[in-house]
Amino acid sequence: MASQAMQGTDISQRFQRIVNGYVEARKTPFGKVSPLWNEFKILSKRLQDSVRQEFPHVQVVGSAGKGNWAEVPWVSILDERVTTRTTDGVYCVYLFRADMSGVYLTFNQGVTETIKRHGRQAGLTILQDRAQKIAERFPALRQQGFVCDEPIVLRGGQLGSDYEVGTIAHKFYPAETIPEDKSLLKDLRHLLSVYNEYADGVEESSSSNSESDELMDELMAVEPNTSKVIELAAIVHSFAEAIQEAGISFGVHHTAFVRTFLVSLLTKRFVILTGMSGSGKTQIAMKFGEWLGADRFQICAVRPDWTGAEALFGYEDALAASSADGRRGWAVPAALEFMLKAHNYPDAPFLLILDEMNLAHVERYFADVLSGMESGAAVLPNLGREADGVWRIKAGEFTHVPVPKNLFVVGTVNIDETTYIFSPKVLDRANTIEFRVPTDSLRLMAAKPMACAPASVEFTRGLLSVARAPAWSGEPPVELEAFAAYFRVLHELLAEAGFEFGHRVFFEANRYAALHRMVDSSENFWEEALDRQVMQKVLPRLHGSRRRLEPVLCALGQFCYDLTYHKGAIYEGTAMSFDPVKRQDNKAVLPLSLDKIGRMTRNLRANQFTSFTE
C-alpha cells in the first residue's frame, strides 16, 4: 500500500481498507461482527454526503453480500428517476475485483431482471447492445477518461461476468494506488453529470403524454425486437420476492396471496384488507407502498370523529390569508396533499392507506372519493401551495380535478365494538381480502419486517399500465366463458334470497378473472379466480339473522363444494340438506370460499347473526 493512500482522507481510506482486508474478512463470519462489514456502510454515507447537494436525486447503497460475503462487493449510486434497485435499470457503481487487486468506477446496468425476463443468452446480448448504444449517446464519457470499448475484468464467477457484460463505461483504480478523495470525487462527479443527463431524458419522456414509443426506446435504450411491456406475472414475482426479502412471508401460499392482492388492486384501485389485529394487513400495504418508491405512499389513521368529506378533502380556512384576487386559503389534510401530488405526477403509481378505515362511518367521509373513482367526476379541490405557504385554488384553472387514475387506495379493517359495518355501496366497489394467521406460520425467530426494496421504474410503469388498460379489447377471451357462466349461476342463487348483485360486480369479477389469467396459465385457472371472487366480492355482502341467512349459506356451500345449484332450493327449504360446517374436506372445487362459509355458518348458529367480518 502506498504511503500516500495511507495518509489519504476518509473516502480514499475506506476504499483502501476494503481492498486490503476483504479477502481475509471472507474467512470470518458475515455481518456486523466484522469490522469490514461496516466499512461499506460508512463509505456509502461518505459518498452520499459528498454528492448530495449537487445531485439530490441519487442514493448511495453499498453491499458486501446478503447472508454471505459477496464474491464481487459493490457500492452503487442510483438516481430515483431511473431506478431504485440494482437488479434493473442504469446506474453508477463501484465494483471491486474478486481478488481485491483494484476497484472499478463504472456506468452500468442491472442484469438480474433482464436475464430473468429474456433468458441468459438473449439477456446478455441485450445488455451488451444496450451498453454500446448508451456509450455512443454520451461522448463525454470518453472525454473524461472513461473506457467504453474494453470490458472490465472482475475475476469472479458468473455474476461477476454478468456485471462485465452490462458495463457501459469504466475507470480502474489499482489497489496500490487508490487516488485521494479529490481525484476520486472528481471522477465520480464527471460520471454523475452524464448519469444526470441520462436521467433527465428519462424523466422528460415519462412526464410527457405526447412522447412517442420511438423516443422512449431511444432514451431508455430499449433493446430492438423485444417487448417493452412488463408482463403482469413478472410484476407479481418481483413484488412477492421483494416483500419476502423484507421479512414478510405468507407461508406456502405466499406467491398466490401476493398475486391475489395485486390482481385485486389492478381490477379496481380500491381494496379492503380485513382480519384480526397483527395478521399483516397494514404491513403488506406498507411494503407495497415502499415497493412503489420513495414518497409514493401515505398512511392516514382514520379517526372516529371523521364525519364528513373535509377529513380527506380539507376545507376553506377562515383564518388563512386570502390572495390579492380574493382566493381563500385552505386547510389541507395529509390525504388531500398526497392525492394532489398523485394528480401532478400522473405517470407514477401512488398508494393511499386508510388505517382502521371503519373507526368512522366510511360513507360519511369516503363517499366523494368512491363516487369520483367510479364516475371520473372532478371532486378534488384543485389546490396549490403558493409563495406565502398558503394553499389556494389555482388561479385561472378548474376549481376541481378528478381522483387521479394513478392513485390506489387500500383500507385496513379490524372488527370490534368500536367499529362500523360496511354498506353494500362500499363493498360493491372493492375487493375484500381476509387475513388469517395459520398456526404453522408462527415462528419462534420471527423478526420485525425491514423496509422493502423499491421496484425499478420499468416495473412500476408496467403496473400502472395494467391498471389503466381494459382487461381485454374486443370480445372477451374464450377462457372466461366458464367463469362468467358460473358467476351467473351465483347471481341466480343469491336472487332467491334478495342478495343478488348488479352489473358492476359482474363486470369487475370478469375483469379480475381476465387479469388472473395473465398470471395463471393452468387449464382450470377460472376455478381459483372464481373461488377468490366468491370470497372477496360475494360473501362480504352477506350479513343478517339466522332465519334469513342460513339457507343462503347452505346453498352457497353446496355450490362451492361441487358447483351445483338446485333452483328453488332456498324457497323450498331444501338447501339446508347441505351442511357447510360438516363438509370441510379437500374435495371442494372452491375451498377458500367453502371454508369461510363454514365459519360464517358456525357463528350464525352460535349467535343467531353473522357477517363476513365477524
Provide mean pLDDT, rounded: 86
How would the global form be characterised?
A: globular
Task: Report the sheet-strand fraction.
Answer: 5-15%
Sequence of strands across the biggest β-sheet: 1-2-3-4-5
Pairing-aware structural class of the strands and helices? alpha+beta
Question: Could you list the spans in which at least 5 consecutive residues all have pLDDT below 50?
Answer: 1-8, 205-229
The radius of gyration computed from the alpha-carbon positions, rounded to a whole number of angstroms, is 28 Å
Number of strands: 18
How far apart are the first and last residues' alpha carbons, in Å?
69 Å
Report the sheet with the most strands, covering strand number, pairing sense and barrel closure.
5 strands, antiparallel
| Number of helical segments with 4 or more residues | 23
Features:
614 residues; alpha+beta; five-stranded parallel beta sheet; globular; disordered N terminus
Q: Explain this structure to me?
A:
By secondary structure, the chain is an alpha+beta fold. It is 45% helix and 14% strand. The chain has 23 helices and 18 strands. The strands form five sheets. Strands 1-2-3-4-5 form a five-stranded antiparallel beta sheet. The termini are far apart. The N terminus is likely disordered.
Short recap of the structure:
By secondary structure, this protein is an alpha+beta fold. Helices cover 45% and strands 14% of the residues.
Map the helices and strands.
Blueprint: H1 3-6, H2 10-25, H3 35-51, E1 58-63, E2 74-79, E3 90-96, E4 102-109, H4 112-118, H5 120-137, H6 140-143, H7 158-166, E5 169-174, H8 181-207, H9 213-220, H10 232-245, H11 254-267, E6 270-275, H12 281-292, E7 297-301, H13 310-313, E8 315-316, E9 329-331, H14 334-344, E10 350-355, H15 362-375, E11 378-381, E12 383-385, E13 391-393, E14 400-402, E15 407-413, H16 424-427, E16 431-435, H17 457-468, H18 481-495, H19 503-519, H20 525-538, E17 543-545, H21 546-562, H22 569-572, H23 591-607, E18 609-611
Parallel strand pairs: 6-15, 6-16, 7-10, 10-15
Antiparallel strand pairs: 1-2, 2-3, 3-4, 4-5, 8-9, 9-13, 11-14, 12-13, 17-18
Helix pairs in contact: 2-3, 4-5, 8-9, 10-11, 10-17, 11-19, 18-19, 18-20, 19-20, 20-23, 21-23
